[in-house]
Fold each of these.
Amino acid sequence: MIHDNDVRSRISTDPWLERDAGIIRSTLLNSVSQPFQWHATTSKVMKCPVCGMDCVRSAKDILATLPAIFEPCDDCSARFLDKRAPLSDLTYGVACSCGKRFIDEVFAHMWVIMTEQGDLEKTAPLAAVGSPLIHPGFAMERPPFLPEKSLVLLSPRVTKPCAEILIREVPELRGVVRSGNFVPGIADPDLNTVPRVYDLLAGCDVRADVFPLTTGPLVMYKQQSLVHIEFPRGGYPKIQAVEQHVGKPAVPYFIDACCGVGTLGLAAACMGVPLVVMNDAWYASAFWSAYNLEINREYLHLNKIRIFEQYDDMQKHPVAKDPIKVAQTEGDQVIEVYQGDYRLLYRILPAGSPVTALDLFDKNDRQALDAIQKDWKARVGGDVFIP
Ligand SMILES: [Zn+2]
Ligand SMILES: [Zn+2]
């Protein structure tokens, strides 16, 4: 392995960076290091709804590992590899005594296994291995040194037998997913076609992204093969839009009508909104929104979170039109999570004049967007914005 003692001061133009990591904004680091009042609860491990193991931890436990989790120790070394070229020989470095390994070395290891197994040609560039999604994901300015179980690999080329070998032999991997040339989840706004998803081939693809808030970073878990990839990027414009519309003191009522795994709705709840409704027609999004309430509950003023549906049961109705209540909280803050078509939400919404975020899948058709907003205002009222 080639040692590069200079790695921590180097500004890399590495393609992983552009594709995966973005920039560690001072906002995130500041909000991680800011003193933050946690409610008095003990940290705990939660059972993973996908694999049944202990791969899900509370926001508090995840945040305790930041920002140092992907930083090298004094003995770590980094070999920067050209992602557009194949490996020159079938060798790769092993992890440092601290347990971390530079991401390029992990990719070299996966490339060797995938070429040996015939999933890749020996002429395939290193980047053909696939896309790395790190856990926990947050915007960072240097390529990461990966600890155990910190990487979900999305690869269009990997086969199941090879994925099983990868999981056994590459300790940094959490899960291997076969991806496709489409966005997983709902693509049809009329909800009439069966959504396509990626295939989890080995391990577990549950991972979290971390988003900065002035109240402390949100930790948003998801099952990666079922939902679109959301790279936490510097600036976090959607969260800033929510902060602007929630204001100080917080508005009394906020709706996240197409909530994905619940980032904007939970952000509003963390900002102190007493009544929040989150909704998504896709079961995986609605489920993880409810689950992320539990993950981030230390930020919220809740006595109880009731989750009405299990993940397995929700798979039986992957797309819902008539809203189904998935979760409901009790306490000073009331948060409701629904699975349904946002255009039918008006039937079940609590009374009041909400601020609504309409984070629609397709934002290109300006005329259609105007019509949707007008329709929402006529049925529900309040203030509507497209983040
Ligand atoms: Zn799991
Ligand atoms: Zn080390």
Amino acid sequence: MGFSESIPRSAGDRHSAPVVSRGRYVYPPGLRFNLPFYRFHEFFDPENPILLFEHLRRYGRAAHYRILWNDVVLLNDPTDIGEVLIDKAASFGKDRTQKRMKILLGEGLITSDGETHKRGRRIAAPAFHRRRIEGYAGQIVGLAAAMRDQWKPEAEFDISAEMMRLALQVVARTLFDTEVTPEIHDINDQVNVIMDLYHFLMTLPRAELLLNSPLPKMRRFRAAKKRLDDVVDGMIHSRRSEVDARSSDRGDLLSMLVAARDDEVGGDHRRLTSEELRDQVLTLFLAGFETVANALSWTWLLLGQNPVAEARLHVEIDAVLNGRLPTFDDIPRLEYTSMVLSESMRLYPPAWAMGREVLEDVSIGPYHLRKGTMVFFSQYLVQRDPRWFPEPEQFKPERFTPAAKAGRPRFAYFPFGGGGRQCIGESFAWMEATLALVTLAQRWRVELVQGQKIEMLPKITLRPKNGIRVKMMRREG
Ligand code: HEM
């Protein structure tokens, strides 16, 4: 392996910065052997990579391992994470795992780097301005209000499936200005087929080479991708003719992107091509739908487990709204609601880990990493660090008062990432989650069905593995 270890690999002081020299490079300590060698260890479970990350946390500030010839470093320290995302962001690109998503998302915002990414971000940014997203608030409340009218007292159901249904309706309305039509179901189904196969592809070193092979799995992949492209292209085409005919947009994100030009200084004043549009639309669909649904699902679980917090939430909702439906302008006054959602995304961050690839040799904290190293950091791990969050397993919304927040380093809590690639949909997500939660909780109290085992499924987003079974109790008044 060529590593000479300068300290024993023990838990030691979790937050000291032991280093391992390797020629002119300096890496954190970590697994002695190549990762596949550990396949019979309990922390090696391809279905649950959080186990590996939790195991690696014992090495302290950072840990190192190798997969075949690739160096991988897990960073656990907020300062080091800030260096990667902000101070030295130019030395990092998206990691190979995310680049592989190009198979699905082409050169969309998530997968692109450099100038392509900057241009995509410039063009999409106006669609997420405050005034623009404000227009979606009424639609979101309307959809949540319709859902709360359908619920039956004490009927048992899976709240995570229900939150997926709501988030799909919201994305259909705000991205495409439509109901959940068969086309939207089709997009969702094809994305799911592709995602399942994507996980299979991830396990192979040269997956791209297999794409055109006659393997049945690959045939299925190609068919799903073609169907997906056809449906989205069809929607783009009809919207483009509308926008051209009326020289105005319909208010949804798609119209906005269809009409947008890169008019910034340094921009080329060109509109997005059909292909670029498709990549961006699919990216927004994928990034904006499951994440919010998961944030809401985990929040119901935590409210079910913490009736005192739930009661306090109800007090706030009743005081602020006095029985009427919420609006965009109510959001700043729903302070406890925002603390509940923050604490929920601390314990169950929908985006549970992030990665980057080192583009040129770079120093991060005490480490000197070589080009090609993959760097990961996990919201799930860092946001459960007892230095910033004592009794980290406990649900305590009070951790998010302004004073408490000011006492922590910037990257102790980063559910939406940070730096130039911080989630572009963050304000949208906050608005959607807040308004949906408040509309539903105004009418209903949650009870968890006893005896169920709640497990996490950390795929691209952090999902509840077997759903969350609940009964909803109607609130008086
Ligand atoms: C609770 C909900 C959400 C969470 C936790 C979340 C989290 C994240 C995180 C952590 C990143 C950064 C990834 C990285 O730097 O590697 C990201 C990026 C992104 N998110 Fe979100 N997101 C959420 C909702 C949304 C919504 C609603 C949309 C769009 C409607 C959206 C669109 C995007 C896009 C396009 C990017 C890529 C930005 C770029 O690289 O420039 N997200 N999100």
